[in-house]
Task: inverse folding
């Protein structure tokens, strides 16, 4: 039989339709592969019994002629999405043992379309991090390694590090992610796969553990643009249970992939040429520009003058919203509790024991920024700059249809690097945070390998609600890049 | 602006986080660096700029005033560390 774990979703759907294999066989192949890849620590909770049961039901539906969009496809779910009857930790000790009594809207939609859940994948604690090193359930290891024989373990990126590592290592065909400041796009780039964050409001946030509510947005990981589009199609749509869910029609993303990008205007923002940018990033960006030009697009120079203020703006707004959202973890309604002398002492001890360092830092920054006397100077100021950043994009889109930029300022770094200095870690998101602040759709597509044999990604940022054009340009980049390399982990397994 | 140990202790108290003296010193340095980093925003002229609270340009929806769920007391209490007769239990707050 063909290698069941190395197919694209589109190929697997064809194979299932042609009865080349069943969903149970496809699912079992992934469960076996997961066992062999446990050292990557991509999954927090594996759910083999649920997977096999869902696969059996899927095979029955297909036989009955009622196959859905993702019928029988085994996927991974970021452990930030509430799943009924399955522990949901958000990567935090404080939620250890939390078993939701309800299902998130996004996973409900995926299951309605026939997807099979392999398990819950690791992420930075409450999605706060850029290396998947802040999870209480351990670091995730990137399936890619440097080609220098050093065997150094590399970060998969974050916060959706488990999602990206699982899809790259062929232990899930696709995965859900969430992106607050780059948590889908940066790990996709680090792991050599595609990841798309749609427009804020496109996917329901209902049942996703909240970090920063005005920024959090769900999206998809897959191994090519077509699969990303298909998976995102299933996740998207209006939900009355989320007050910021947008009641706008979801276009057919697959049909958007037909056709070419001739005459499309691709903007190159000059402010993304940051000081000290490594040459390999500069080079891959230049290649990307040539690729879209060759595909018939017109290159337009644009300016986003407030780019350098995006990170400082983000590091007020996100912690402020996090300090408010995470106030709910008080040891009373759910999760861990540490008994204290009185109620306040119980709160303080519970939260001290339940949260990790990075989460505590952000709660304290947010509390400070929202506290009496500082609110205007920090929080309101950041919201004003956020408007200027958003206006920059709208100005640029008068001259172009999409923007093309690098996804991250480097390839995957070694685990342990960047950990001593929070701000150094924050700089990873320098190219992804601005689009998050403006609520825009953004996608990372693997574009090539650097000298160390590690993948580099290019980012495409679109107009609000225009994921279709983002996907179309993404596919043009994908075709030109012809990225077929496998992670070191999988090449070794195959050898 | 930098945060000394007392300021960190005050913020931690507001955030209901128990921290030790040692931690307050450690966080003080890190938080001060982050505060200095975000204070770059002071360079930006934001006179006459409206704060942006939400990127979604929609008014909050109203729905029909109908009961659409309820009767799920057991579900609500299912994950609590301690419950009694349909209530959450917390340490005594009134003497």
Result:
């Amino acid at each position: 039989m063909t290698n069941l774990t190395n197919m694209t979703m589109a190929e697997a759907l064809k194979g299932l339709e042609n009865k080349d294999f069943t969903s149970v066989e496809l699912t079992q192949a992934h469960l076996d592969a997961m066992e062999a890849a446990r050292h990557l620590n991509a999954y927090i909770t594996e759910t083999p019994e649920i997977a096999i049961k869902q696969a059996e039901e899927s095979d029955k539906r297909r036989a009955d002629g009622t196959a859905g969009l993702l019928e029988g496809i085994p996927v991974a779910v970021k452990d930030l999405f509430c799943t009924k009857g399955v522990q949901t930790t958000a990567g935090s000790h404080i939620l250890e043992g939390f078993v939701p009594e309800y299902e998130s809207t996004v996973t409900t939609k995926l299951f309605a379309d026939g997807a099979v859940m392999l398990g819950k994948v690791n992420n930075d604690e409450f999605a706060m991090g850029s290396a998947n090193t802040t999870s209480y359930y351990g670091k995730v290891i990137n399936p890619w390694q440097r080609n220098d024989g050093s065997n150094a373990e590399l970060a998969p990126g974050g916060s959706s590090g488990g999602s990206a590592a699982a899809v790259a290592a062929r232990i899930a065909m696709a995965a859900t992610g969430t992106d607050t400041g780059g948590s889908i796009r940066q790990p996709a780039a680090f792991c050599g796969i595609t990841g798309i964050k749609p427009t804020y409001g496109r996917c329901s946030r209902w049942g996703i553990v909240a970090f920063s509510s005005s920024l959090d947005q769900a999206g998809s990981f897959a191994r090519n643009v077509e699969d990303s589009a298909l998976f995102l199609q299933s996740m998207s749509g209006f939900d009355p249970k989320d007050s910021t869910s947008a009641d706008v029609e979801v276009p057919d993303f697959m049909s958007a992939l037909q056709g070419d990008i001739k005459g499309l205007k691709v903007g190159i923002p000059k402010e993304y040429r940051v000081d000290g940018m490594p040459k390999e990033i500069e080079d891959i960006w230049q290649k990307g520009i040539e690729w879209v030009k060759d595909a018939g697009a017109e290159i337009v120079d644009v300016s986003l003058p407030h780019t350098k203020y995006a990170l400082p703006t983000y590091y007020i707004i996100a912690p402020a919203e996090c300090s408010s959202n995470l106030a709910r973890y008080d040891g009373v309604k759910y999760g861990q509790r540490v008994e204290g002398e009185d109620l306040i002492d119980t709160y303080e001890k519970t939260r001290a024991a339940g949260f990790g360092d990075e989460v505590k830092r952000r709660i304290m920054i947010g509390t400070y920024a929202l506290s009496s006397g500082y609110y205007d100077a920090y929080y309101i100021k950041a919201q004003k700059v956020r408007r200027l950043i958003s206006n920059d994009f709208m100005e640029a889109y008068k001259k172009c249809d999409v923007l093309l930029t690098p996804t991250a300022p480097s390839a995957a770094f070694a685990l342990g690097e960047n950990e001593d200095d929070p701000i150094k870690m924050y700089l990873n998101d320098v190219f992804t945070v601005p689009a998050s602040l403006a609520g825009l759709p953004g996608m990372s597509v693997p574009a090539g390998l650097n000298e160390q044999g590690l993948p580099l990604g290019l980012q495409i940022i679109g107009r609000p609600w225009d994921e279709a054009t983002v996907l179309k340009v993404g596919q043009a980049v994908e075709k030109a890049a012809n990225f077929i390399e496998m992670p070191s982990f999988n090449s070794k397994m195959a050898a | 602006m930098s945060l000394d140990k007392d300021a960190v202790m005050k913020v931690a108290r507001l955030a209901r986080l128990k921290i030790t003296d040692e931690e307050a010193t450690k966080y003080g340095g890190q938080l001060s660096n982050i505060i200095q980093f975000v204070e770059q925003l002071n360079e930006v002229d934001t006179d006459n700029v409206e704060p942006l609270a939400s990127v979604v340009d929609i008014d909050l929806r109203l729905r029909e005033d109908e009961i659409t769920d309820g009767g799920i007391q057991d579900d609500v209490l299912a994950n609590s560390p301690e419950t009694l007769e349909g209530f959450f239990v917390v340490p005594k707050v009134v003497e």
About this structure: The two ends of chain B are 42 Å apart (CA to CA). Helices of chain B lie at 5-14, 21-38, 73-77. The CA atoms of residues 70 and 76 of chain B lie 10 Å apart. Chain B has a mean pLDDT of 92.
